[in-house]
């Protein structure tokens, strides 16, 4: 392992061990730092200057990275150099003051209530299939409680006692615990899955604590959850690519449309800042604007305008 790779590995190990960053975050930082090592070439990382960073930024922009992606990359690099500075490995932070190009803020894509119903509706003949029972419990829980993918995949069997009482306890970003409600349909789907979960256990996985299991009796991976959700969406004829975070967006948007309680939605999503939750007010306004355009006689377009 060369010097640059050793420094990166040490920083990532500290993030994972002491700061309790999620595996997903660590993987993202690892990719971002790999770009820095690649672009630095033979120049030692502690010797890089601000002009190097600006040039790297231009190169990555030329490869097609958006302003949003570049902002994330710069954030990782900035944190890495801050850590190097604290250890006396770098005299300055070359990323300080470097800003990514601005890019339009994309609104999260949420399913409409009709699309959510189409996705989660009765499974018909699939109701007898154990994998379909498992998938139904997963998708209902995503939509019912607005969980992140990593939070849902990490649930253990012991959570069913809380679920029976109408709530689930999860560990969110930075290991912060929160409790969110679980709706009646999600509770019923989870009970149906729990009654047959043991059928997937094997002799070597009898003690597996995971709530959701794969065919091999082990914990279901996040990749498999994504794949099964994509498969369900295609089978139900949904027009867009549906991913787990879209169900979280849909949960937030639909609760906000019904209640208007931004603080409650923030609490349930586990957002540290209300600003992260406010994006759903824009979705809500988009929905209201569509309803207004369709319903108000003075909002309808005239033939000449079309």
TrEMBL record:
State where the protein is found.
Cytoplasm
Domain of life from the UniProt record: Bacteria
PROSITE patterns in the cross-refs: CB, TYR_RECOMBINASE
CC terms in the record's Gene Ontology section: cytoplasm
Q: Name one GO molecular function term.
A: tyrosine-based site-specific recombinase activity
Q: Which GO terms describe its biological process?
A: cell division; chromosome segregation; DNA transposition
Xref: CDD domains:
INT_XerDC_C (cd00798)
Q: Which residues does the entry assign to the active site, renumbered to this chain?
A: 148, 173, 245, 248, 271, 280
Q: What is its main location?
A: cytoplasm
Segments forming domain Core-binding (CB): 2-85
Domain (Tyr recombinase) spans 106-293
Which keywords belong to this entry? Cell cycle, Cell division, Chromosome partition, Cytoplasm, DNA integration, DNA recombination, DNA-binding
Q: Which family does the entry's similarity section mention?
A: Belongs to the 'phage' integrase family. XerC subfamily.
UniProt subunit comment: Forms a cyclic heterotetrameric complex composed of two molecules of XerC and two molecules of XerD.
Task: Say what the protein does.
Answer: Site-specific tyrosine recombinase, which acts by catalyzing the cutting and rejoining of the recombining DNA molecules. The XerC-XerD complex is essential to convert dimers of the bacterial chromosome into monomers to permit their segregation at cell division. It also contributes to the segregational stability of plasmids.
Q: What's the protein name?
A: Tyrosine recombinase XerC
Query: What gene name does this entry carry?
Result: xerC
């Amino acid at each position: 392992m060369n010097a640059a790779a050793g420094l990166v590995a040490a920083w990532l190990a500290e993030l994972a061990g002491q700061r309790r960053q999620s595996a997903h975050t660590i993987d993202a930082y690892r990719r971002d730092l790999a770009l820095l090592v690649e672009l630095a070439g033979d120049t030692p990382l502690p010797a890089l200057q601000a002009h190097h960073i600006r040039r790297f930024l231009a190169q990555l922009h030329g490869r097609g990275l958006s302003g949003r992606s570049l902002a994330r990359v710069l954030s990782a690099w900035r944190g890495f150099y801050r850590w190097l500075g604290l250890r006396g490995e770098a005299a300055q932070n070359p990323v300080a003051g470097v800003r990514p190009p601005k890019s339009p803020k994309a609104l999260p894509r949420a399913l409409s209530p009709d699309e959510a119903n189409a996705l989660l509706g009765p499974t018909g003949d699939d109701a007898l299939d154990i994998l379909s029972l498992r998938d139904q419990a997963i998708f209902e829980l995503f939509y019912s409680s607005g969980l992140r993918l990593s939070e849902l995949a990490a649930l253990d069997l012991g959570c069913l006692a809380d679920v029976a009482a109408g709530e689930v306890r999860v560990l969110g970003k930075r290991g912060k615990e929160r409790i969110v409600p679980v709706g009646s349909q999600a509770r019923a789907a989870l009970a149906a899955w729990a009654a047959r979960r043991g059928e997937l256990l094997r002799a070597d996985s009898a003690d597996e604590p995971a709530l959701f299991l794969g065919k091999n009796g082990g914990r279901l991976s996040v990749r498999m959850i994504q794949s099964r959700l994509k498969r369900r969406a295609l089978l139900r004829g949904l027009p867009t690519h549906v991913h787990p975070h879209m169900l979280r967006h849909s949960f937030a948007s639909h609760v906000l449309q019904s209640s208007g309680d931004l603080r409650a939605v923030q609490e349930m999503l586990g957002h540290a800042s209300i600003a992260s939750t406010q994006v759903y007010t824009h979705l809500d306004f988009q929905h209201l604007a569509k309803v207004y355009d369709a319903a108000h006689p003075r909002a309808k377009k005239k033939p000449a305008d079309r």
